[in-house]
Amino acid sequence: MKNYWLQENKWKDVEEYLEKKKTILIPLGSVEQHAMHLPLGTDSFLAQAIAEDVAKETDTLIAPPIWTGWAPHHMAYKGTITLKPETLTSIVEDTCNSLIYHGFEKIILINGHREANLPPIKIGMTKVRNKTGAFLCIADPFYINAEKGKELSEVEPGGIGHAEELEASQMYYLLPDLCEPEASAKNIPKKHRFLEHDPFVPGDKMITASDVHTYKEATKGIGIMGDATLANKEKGKEYHEAMIKNIAEFVSHCETDIEVELRNTEIPI
Ligand SMILES: [Zn+2]
Fold first, then answer.
1. What residue segments make up the domains of the chain, in order of their start?
2. How many whole angstroms from 57 Cα to the centroid of ligand 1?
3. How far is the CA of 167 from the centre of ligand 1 (A)?
4. Which of 23, 27, 132, 176 is surrounded by the most beta carbons within 10 Å?
């Protein structure tokens, strides 16, 4: 394929693609503060870079990126843009329904805004799945690359959160010109054991709602949760390559092993 991004193709190219392949990737991210060392677009830049590398590996088309996500707590810092969750759900639904109308059967959503975007995206894709029978799934770095993340991470327990070691490492590797490693910081607050948010710390947990005031306090007015001082591009390269390998393997599995019969394919109106 010449152009992996759908928007860089002509409609005839998409028609030809659909004659042999029915899978498409959709990168989703967020425009939200990422402390002093990473740019606001980190989650979206990463989702797009991951999608591009998976596309090259598997010869798969990528839908235009969904740049903004659900990030109300990050409004504590300037520049963050948040969608209402129902807006994000609708964007996911309308985008997927448009693609399915044309004949795409398998949609892999690549979420760069780790974990936080999941509830609205899951609602959107569940509605689409139930209506159309299409196969939809989310590749989220916390889950699809958990094993490599655990292996590479050198932080103390509680150190995986926001703008931290793994996310910063991947950015230093992929988009170094937008990063300032010398401005990286460490913030690992002591928490009650049920309130631990680090996905790599095992144990029994509660899930709480966050708000701008407590989030600003918890992130020490810097915007970090974790330890970015341990980030480096070598770690980022290994983390990224493992992620691409996992997602590419799943794209191939979708192609060969997942059967779909579409129904109710309608234009979103
Ligand atoms: Zn992020």
1. 6-257
2. 24
3. 6
4. 27
Helices (H), 227-267: 233-257
Quickly state the pLDDT bin for 157 (edges 50, 70, 90).
confident
Average pLDDT, the chain: 96
CA gap 101, 111 in Å, rounded: 23
CA angle 170, 172, 175 (to 5 degrees): 95
- Name the band, by pLDDT with cuts 50, 70 and 90, for residue 115: confident
- 6-257 falls under which CATH superfamily? Creatininase (3.40.50.10310)
- pTM for this entry: 0.96
Q: How far is the CA of 95 from the centre of ligand 1 (A)?
A: 23
Residue pointed to by tokens 């004949």? 103
Q: How many angstroms separate the alpha carbon of residue 41 from the centre of ligand 1?
A: 8
Distance from the alpha carbon of residue 5 to the mean position of ligand 1, in angstroms: 23
Give tens-digit pLDDT for 203-251.
999 988 989 999 999 999 999 999 999 999 999 999 999 999 999 999 9
Ligand 1 center to 43 CA (angstroms):
5
Q: Is the dihedral of CA 169, 175, 176, 180 positive or negative?
A: negative
